[in-house]
Design a protein that fits this description.
Number of domains: 2
Helix content: 40-55%
Number of helices: 10
CATH class of the largest domain: Alpha Beta
Distance between the termini: 40 Å
Strand content: 15-25%
Shape: globular
Structural class: alpha/beta
Radius of gyration: 18 Å
Order of helices and strands: HEEEHEHEHEHHHHEHEH
Low-confidence stretches: none
């Protein structure tokens, strides 16, 4: 198994926080492992087996329990499959896939086949949006509809602004362990303060080999071939993927864009009330 954890102690501390968040949710769940050609993938399953399926994907440097916390009520209507994305600080394998080919799309479709589900709804945040769009590019036949929150892969923000406001504070925290730098990072990325994110990312930044590969954007020709209904939730103050720019491009390149919503006062990670409105839309 490939490991991207820098130390065993660091891995233990990160996964202890993973377990802490999962137990804090207070839901009935089971783990399921899907063996894909890219490595073992861990999935947290909740909700009634007779309900329609939904897959949810977390963002970069995240984990499935955070995705479950983001949409805590989905299991009232859906059979929820919260996926630990490969090569992230979670319980899936550390195989790092290329973002410029169809690897992520093939991986998602292998999971769908492994779970023996069809007509599946998929929702995801940030990097999870890239993963979902790659799945639509590769084979969308088993996918019913998708919901993307602040998704990667449609537009990118100003790289200099991201460098100074996000990546330099991150690097300074890694070098100094001074909490003021991670606080600065979080204040630029999160609409509301998140204590778990502070604890979790403090460990991830120090003990996990993060991927700083530049994020691609979807080719307009490939976007036009997608037929699955897409709903996008964007944030106007998102430094990484600016919401206004995102909705502008999405409306031009996605014929299957069903709906879009721009949160004026939101940063990359939306507020709790904004997330609740997203969840309601998914459950309609």
């Amino acid at each position: 198994m490939n490991s991207l954890y820098k130390t065993e102690q660091g891995k233990s501390e990160i996964l202890a926080l993973y377990d802490e968040k999962l137990e804090e949710l207070g839901i009935a769940y089971a783990y399921k492992t899907i063996h894909t050609s890219f490595g073992k993938t861990n999935i947290i399953v909740s909700g009634k087996s007779t309900d329609p399926p939904i897959m949810i994907f977390h963002g970069s440097n995240g984990c499935a329990p955070v995705a479950l916390e983001t949409y805590p009520n989905l299991n009232r209507k859906f059979r929820v499959y919260a996926v630990d994305i490969l090569a992230q600080p979670n319980k899936s394998e550390g195989t790092r896939l290329r973002m410029t080919d169809d690897s992520y799309g093939k991986w998602v479709n292998e999971i769908i086949i492994g779970l023996n589900i069809d007509n599946v709804t998929i929702a995801g945040f940030s990097f999870g949006g890239l993963v979902i769009l790659k799945a639509l590019e590769f084979d969308e036949t088993k996918i019913k509809e998708v919901f993307l929150s602040s998704p990667a892969y449609i537009v990118n923000g100003n790289p200099l602004k991201a460098l100074f406001k996000i990546f330099i504070p991150m690097k300074r925290f890694k070098a100094t362990k001074n909490p003021k730098y991670i606080e600065k990072f979080l204040s630029e990325v999160f609409t509301e303060r998140d204590e778990f994110a502070l604890k979790y990312l403090s460990k991830v930044f120090l003990f996990f080999d993060m991927d700083f590969t530049p994020l691609p954007v979807i080719d307009a020709k490939k976007a036009k071939d997608i037929k699955t209904p897409i709903t996008i939730f964007a944030a106007k103050r998102d430094i990484l993927f600016p919401g206004g720019k995102m909705i502008g491009r999405a409306s031009k390149i996605f014929p299957s864009l069903k709906n879009s919503m721009l949160f004026d006062n939101a940063k990359h990670v939306q507020s709790r009330s904004q997330l609740e409105s997203i969840e309601k839309k998914i459950m309609e």
